[in-house]
Design a protein that fits this description.
The chain has six helices and 16 strands. By secondary structure, the chain is an alpha+beta fold. A five-stranded mixed β-sheet has the order 1-2-5-8-4. Strands 3-14-13-12-11 form a five-stranded mixed β-sheet, covered by helices on one side. It has a two-stranded antiparallel sheet with strand order 6-7.
Length: 351
């Protein structure tokens, strides 16, 4: 787990906090990541994988009653791990966050927190089939929420994440992009939980998304010839991890302080998927659960034509967050896994 932020953090978006909790050892290798936006944040989601594990995503439809969300919960544990959202919801209720449904005289006397959730497949990676996130772990994650730079690597929902068909360690990554608009500047941040069957590297050993990094930002170096050869040999022979493609999903949350309505926020999430497509191959298959959530806190007004610029920044932020996850995830060992991270095999590729 690291907190180095070469490309920024989701928490660079003012008012957005992130909390994480995980369990490792004794059969465990899983966790929960919660994004806690300020009250009144508009939410949306775009699910493109054919095998999603999601909760309350229908509530984010632009035609639904409530346009705002109180938290987004990302977890391990496949569909079992969606139980973590109950703990996040309990914390939000305790803190008065939610849609007021109380008596007319005091609507806020009873709130229903809107907590959409999605999960990755990491079952059995710690060795115990019953070791999955639950409401207690979800509560611990949201209770730890902070506006500090997000910890990355094998942490939170990325604790048990793998990439490249189960041959490299995956994890959590984060980034942010700042763009100029007529009213000042807008921040677009992203957090990704990278658990892809697809590969983040090219046949030459470079990071697939490195060529798409926006101009002026730091870029990973190309690995040496010997490192690239060792990586290729490792990917070809596999490891003890289960490489079957049913074990993949990449999740992301992209947030901005721009003022967007529900439809524009959905487009923010939709263009975030372009960042996945630029950095992983393949994505969005029938066996993936890939989903991107969009959040707009609404503090910076935009001219109508500026929404396209914000959407483009969402793709860049997600791309950088995926790269950050791959670069931050290092060797992990459990009774059933012994997996290196990308930089363990290609240390010269570091930023």
């Amino acid at each position: 787990m690291t907190v180095n932020k070469p490309w920024g953090s989701l928490t660079d978006v003012p008012g957005v906090a992130v909390g994480q909790a995980q369990r490792t050892g004794d059969g465990w290798l899983t966790g929960v990541t919660v994004v806690l936006p300020p009250p009144g944040t508009v939410g949306a989601v775009d699910v493109r994988g054919g095998a999603p594990a999601t909760h309350e995503t229908d509530a984010l439809d632009p035609t639904a009653l409530v346009p705002t969300v109180d938290a987004v919960c990302l977890s391990g544990g496949s569909a079992f791990g969606l139980a973590a959202a109950g703990g996040v919801q309990a914390w939000c209720e305790e803190h008065g966050r939610g849609f007021g449904v109380g008596p007319e005289a005091d609507r806020r006397s009873l709130v229903v927190p809107i907590v959409p959730a999605a999960a990755i497949f990491d079952l059995l990676r710690g060795g115990d089939r019953g070791a999955r996130p639950d409401a207690t772990l979800g509560y611990a994650a949201v209770a730890a929420a902070s506006s500090a730079p997000v910890a990355v690597g094998a942490v939170g929902a990325g604790t048990g994440a793998l990439v490249a068909g189960g041959r490299l360690k995956g994890g959590v990554g984060t980034a942010s992009v700042r763009i100029a608009v007529a009213s000042g500047s807008v921040v677009v941040g992203a957090l990704a939980v990278v658990n892809a069957a697809g590969s983040p590297v090219t046949p030459d050993g470079d990071l697939l998304g490195a060529s798409a990094i926006p101009a002026g930002l730091p870029r990973p170096c190309a690995p040496s010839g010997d490192e690239a050869a060792a990586l290729a040999a490792h990917l070809a022979q596999g490891t003890g991890a289960d490489p079957r493609p049913r074990t993949n999903t990449t999740l992301a949350v992209v947030a901005t302080d721009a003022r967007l309505d529900t439809t524009a926020t959905w487009r923010l999430a939709a263009t975030g998927h372009d960042g996945l497509a630029r950095s992983l191959r393949p994505v969005h298959t029938m066996l993936d659960g890939d989903a991107v959530f969009g959040l707009a806190t609404g503090t910076v007004p935009l001219e109508p034509e500026e929404t396209a610029v914000v959407e483009a920044a969402a793709a860049d932020a997600v791309l950088l967050a995926v790269l950050d996850a791959v670069l931050s995830s290092r060797t992990t060992r459990t009774p059933v896994l012994d997996l290196p991270g990308y930089l363990d095999l290609c240390p010269s590729a570091s930023l």
